[in-house]
């Protein structure tokens, strides 16, 4: 592979991935050692600067990412709408909380806890990339299992699920009592 092919391959990798890619992975992809790969990338970075391109390659520790030059953001803003943060209604938040604390969990288990259907809420959470399918439960019907995503952690500023706040045991008992009252009211109707 000559330098031009290597540069084209690196550019394609960085463009397609979007996030940073470690030098080791790039080197393996283009069949080069890491030092040669770094030299090729540095050459590309210099060429982008000299040609005053709208993109740049940023070095992040021992990884690289293709990015828009920050001085050109104003042009992007003129054509792109500001990304909207998902609106999490009470129903969606309640469903997300159940999934976060009980994962992996099936829709049926969520519905037992909530006492109502949860299809819409789960679908919204999947659409917002806060929840994903983890696989299937080894049980009759093989129901889907759901759990949270890395985006869930980013969205709520957590490093891991260990950062979830602990539930107050008194609150848990209050919630159980409320749920039992609601069930009894539905049975009385």
Give a verbal description of the structure.
This protein is α+β, with helices and mostly antiparallel strands and 189 residues long. The protein folds into two domains: 3-79, Arc Repressor Mutant, subunit A (Orthogonal Bundle); 90-188, Arc Repressor Mutant, subunit A. Helices cover 54% and strands 13% of the residues. It is built from nine helices and five strands, in the order αβααββααααββαα. It has helices at residues 3-17, 23-29, 34-50, 73-79, 90-102, 107-114, 119-127, 150-155, 169-188, and strands at residues 21-22, 55-60, 63-68, 131-136, 144-148.
Strand and helix map with partners:
Blueprint: H1 3-17, E1 21-22, H2 23-29, H3 34-50, E2 55-60, E3 63-68, H4 73-79, H5 90-102, H6 107-114, H7 119-127, E4 131-136, E5 144-148, H8 150-155, H9 169-188
Antiparallel strand pairs: 1-3, 2-3, 4-5
């Amino acid at each position: 592979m000559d330098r031009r092919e290597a540069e084209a391959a690196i550019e394609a990798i960085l463009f397609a991935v979007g996030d940073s890619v470690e030098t080791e992975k790039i080197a393996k992809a283009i069949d080069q050692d890491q030092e040669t790969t770094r030299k090729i990338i540095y050459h590309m970075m210099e060429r982008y600067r000299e040609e005053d391109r709208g993109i740049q390659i940023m070095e992040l520790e021992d990884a690289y990412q293709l990015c828009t030059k920050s001085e050109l953001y104003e042009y992007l803003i003129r054509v792109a709408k500001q990304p909207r943060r998902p609106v999490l209604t009470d129903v969606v938040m309640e469903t997300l909380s159940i999934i976060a604390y009980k994962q992996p969990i099936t829709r049926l288990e969520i519905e037992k806890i909530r006492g109502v259907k949860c299809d819409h809420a789960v679908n919204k959470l999947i659409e917002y990339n806060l929840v994903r399918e983890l696989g299937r439960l080894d049980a009759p019907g093989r129901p889907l299992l759901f759990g949270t995503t890395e985006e869930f952690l980013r969205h709520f500023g957590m490093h891991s699920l260990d950062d979830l706040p602990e539930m107050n045991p008194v609150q848990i008992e209050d919630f159980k009592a409320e749920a039992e009252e609601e069930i009894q009211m539905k049975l009385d109707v």
